[in-house]
Specification:
Shape: globular
Largest sheet: 7 strands, antiparallel
Radius of gyration: 16 Å
Oligomer: single chain
Strand content: 35-45%
Number of helices: 3
Length: 204
């Protein structure tokens, strides 16, 4: 798995256009519910701006987010097959909506947990990142870099495009490169809904 070029899948125009537009409008209407993103560390979570800098939606998911969830879970077997993940019984589905503005980034990491950060009873197996933003795009850069397990250079650089879905194994190392947003406006952010499909841990 050192070479990840065949281990991810991209789906452009993943949602119906009106659903994608509703999701964007929902995010912009709820700016007040976004707060600095917290990173899971041990048994808790903290704001670690040296590692991840963005804001995250901190309220219950609205109808457009639930529409996205339904679309993802309906295609779950196909998404697994596309990136070579063996199908599994879905123990939990996680989702977070995030906004990345000027200078925001997320350092190299994997989405599975280990050690004290691992939650008893489940493992993240599949990551899905849904991109959406205002058009014309109000930011630059913010590419997602996918790495091989021993590589120092990215195996792939994924451009965030409106209504694009990116899927890859949760164990794949990746990072979000810094975003440039000249206007500084929340509405011009690089918006994502980050989703994780969890498998129940055997023997638990």
């Amino acid at each position: 798995m050192a070479d990840l070029t065949a281990r991810y899948a991209i789906y452009d125009d993943f949602l119906e256009a009106d659903c994608a537009d509703r999701l964007l409008q929902f995010a912009m209407d709820n700016q007040a519910s976004f707060a600095p993103t917290r990173v899971k560390q041990g048994e808790g979570s903290n704001v670690a701006t040296e590692y991840r800098h963005s804001t995250r939606f901190e309220a219950p998911p609205g109808p457009p987010m639930l529409e996205l969830r339904a679309a993802l879970t309906a295609r779950f077997p196909d998404l697994c097959a596309a990136v070579g993940v063996k199908p599994f019984d879905l123990a939990r589905f996680e989702m977070e909506m995030a906004a990345s503005g000027d200078g925001d980034f997320f350092g190299r990491h994997i989405d599975t947990f280990s050690g004290d950060s691992r939650e008893r009873g489940r493992d993240r197996m599949l990551t899905a990142v849904y991109y959406f933003h205002r058009q014309p795009k109000g930011f630059e850069d913010g590419l997602l870099a996918l790495y091989g397990f021993v590589a120092t250079e990215p195996a792939a650089l994924i451009e965030p495009r409106h209504n694009r879905l990116l899927v890859f194994p949760a164990i794949a190392p990746h990072e979000v490169l810094p975003v440039k947003c000249a206007s500084g406006l929340f509405a011009d952010s690089r918006f994502t809904v980050n989703c994780w499909f969890n498998r129940g841990m055997t023997g638990q």
